[in-house]
Amino acid sequence: MAQYIGIDLGGTNIATGLVSESGEILHKVSLPTGAGRGTEEILQDMVRSVHLCLEQTHLTTEDITCLGVGVPGAVDDSIGMVLRTSNLNWCQLPLTQILQERTNLPVRLANDADCAALGEVIAGSASNYDSAALLTLGTGIGSGFIVDKQVFTGWTGGGTEVGHIPMVYGGEPCGCGNRGCFEAYASATALIRQTKRAMAANPGSMLWQIAPTTDVVNAKTPFDAAQMGDSVALAVLDQYMEYLAFGIGGIVNLLRPQVIILGGGVSNQGENLLVPLRVKVAKYCYASKLIDPPQLVKATLGNDAGIIGAAMLGLNP
Amino acid sequence: MAQYIGIDLGGTNIATGLVSESGEILHKVSLPTGAGRGTEEILQDMVRSVHLCLEQTHLTTEDITCLGVGVPGAVDDSIGMVLRTSNLNWCQLPLTQILQERTNLPVRLANDADCAALGEVIAGSASNYDSAALLTLGTGIGSGFIVDKQVFTGWTGGGTEVGHIPMVYGGEPCGCGNRGCFEAYASATALIRQTKRAMAANPGSMLWQIAPTTDVVNAKTPFDAAQMGDSVALAVLDQYMEYLAFGIGGIVNLLRPQVIILGGGVSNQGENLLVPLRVKVAKYCYASKLIDPPQLVKATLGNDAGIIGAAMLGLNP
To answer: At A315, phi and psi to the nearest 5?
Structure first.
């Protein structure tokens, strides 16, 4: 049985796992990234995590088919290059060559959200499907698209940036420097902002019982208040899901994936989110009476998705 | 040399052509569609146009590799079915089987905008590229996407509907029943509406010299007034191009095509449109400093694109 190693390189941890060819994590090692450190120190710990993983499982590099790395930024796997990361401040780093020389393993790179999507398609919520879109509703909206169980990075590479498709021309400012992008309306950050605004406008809302100060509002706050029947929270969520559905509808109208996987903090609401969202998404899918809208599911692998997907990059050498 | 026949089935004409394998039209036949007629009469004229094309070129069916048909609606080529057309009122019509039986030719189907895109990639403005997005800025926004010189109809089929990606949540009503779709802001129809509104608000604008009544406003009107230096027309066009660029940016951020081809009435403005648009598109392409925005070109084949693309469906049997 072929075995793979995947590294999910995050801003906080270098999470490394030994993964079976069916996508099961057999062993896991985690080292702190120390994102403020120099590149060389982080590289050394990435290599160390691979060696630790091998030592602790009594394996050698000869037992491993491939080392895959999920990078929080833009990569070009065809030339083995990390183009840019935001957290780590890497730019034009030939990561494949560096890791190949230091581990003697074949190396594959992908964006971390693409890895998470691949993990969910190989071993998670979308394992019955070949084509999928993963949207992670977090600080922004990350995305990973999978076609024929392989990462899709756009027709000229560079990766998919679903957070920066249109939502409201000229609308809310976005971290990318433009205005009105999808993630400025449908990320967890956007939901928190929308909740705070509703609280400011509605001093009597039960939202204030759950979050006595707006500092403690998180993406769960409006869902908790909605459970209590608070009409302000219900209206916030209805509007938030409308934005989310409008964006998902646009993705469907262009790409027609078999399944949309939602990850990130907001997705933890599960069916509380998905039941109303399915109705709204159908409304925005063109010709939904002729062509069934895609399935809408919750990501199930959590943080493991990134490790599994990174390792599974080795399935298609 | 293999030869192909393509039918561009329009609301007005059944345009049929004999096409070489390099995408050159060798002979053309046109019959009126008579869209109000029954399906059987239209089918008979489609077959007649094929036979006329053969007779007039002294060929027989044995000289033809494939008959391709561009249909103004949704098709599923894998089952040979026209799912629905709007103009012709066809629904679930097994067009492939019907035409195969009556012409003795292998038959391929595609949406007409997909055919136009394929035509431009095989023999037109995008012949140096493998992946392209064609946007036709007309009554709505039609779209055709080509990957590896083949029609892309989404990962589960059904076709791409770029006119119905988001632009302004809750905005202008769209023909699809929703609000705020791309085509409600960036089609020729939308430009005409934006021009008329600006005229109503600005009685002194030179737009009134070009169009003495709003009934005669067309997509050329604001460009003509802008040429005269009219500030109202310049503002209308600047805003229109902003919408168009925001939508194109979204497509780029998701799909990264090598080239964007603009067709339809508005595209006749050529570089008057493209020069300012390129600047605006770059602004909306994520990481445009790292990843060059795609080329932006004008469709060059006009109505022939549909015939050529339909015929060229036969290149990939």
So the answer is: -70, -25
CA angle B83, B16, B140 (to 5 degrees): 50
Contact B164, A253 (CB under 8 A): yes
Do residues B93 and B43 lie in contact, with contact meaning Cβ atoms separated by under 8 Å? no
Q: How far is B6 from chain A (nearest CA, A)?
A: 26
Under the phi-then-psi rule, with left for phi > 0, alpha for psi from -120 to 50, and beta for the rest, what region is A158? left
C-beta atoms of A284 and B178 within 8 A: yes
Q: How confident is the model at residue A317 (pLDDT cuts 50, 70, 90)?
A: low
User: CB-based contacts of A58: which residues, under 8 Å, 6+ apart?
Assistant: none
Count of alpha carbons within 13 Å of A124, Cβ hemisphere only? Answer: 31
Give CA–CA dist B209/B218, Å, rounded. 13
The verdict on a CB contact (< 8 Å) between A286 and B185 is: no
Q: Give B31-41 pLDDT, tens digit per residue.
A: 999 988 999 99
A142: phi > 0 → left, psi -120 to 50 → alpha, else beta; which? beta
Please state whether A116 falls in left (phi above 0), alpha (psi between -120 and 50) or beta: alpha
- Please report, as a single letter, which amino acid is at residue A151: V
Give SS3 for B260.
strand
Neighbour-count burial of B34, counting CB atoms closer than 10 A to its CB (0-12 exposed, 13-18 middle, 19+ buried):
middle
**CA B113 – CA B139 distance, rounded (Å):** 13
Q: What is the pTM of this model?
A: 0.94
> How many angstroms away from the CA of A84 is the closest CA of chain B?
8
Beta strands in chain B (DSSP E): 3-9, 13-20, 25-32, 64-71, 73-76, 81-85, 91-93, 107-111, 132-137, 141-147, 150-152, 259-263, 295-298
3-class state of residue A301 by DSSP: coil
Write the residue in A74, A180, A286 that is nearest to B287 by C-beta.
Answer: A74
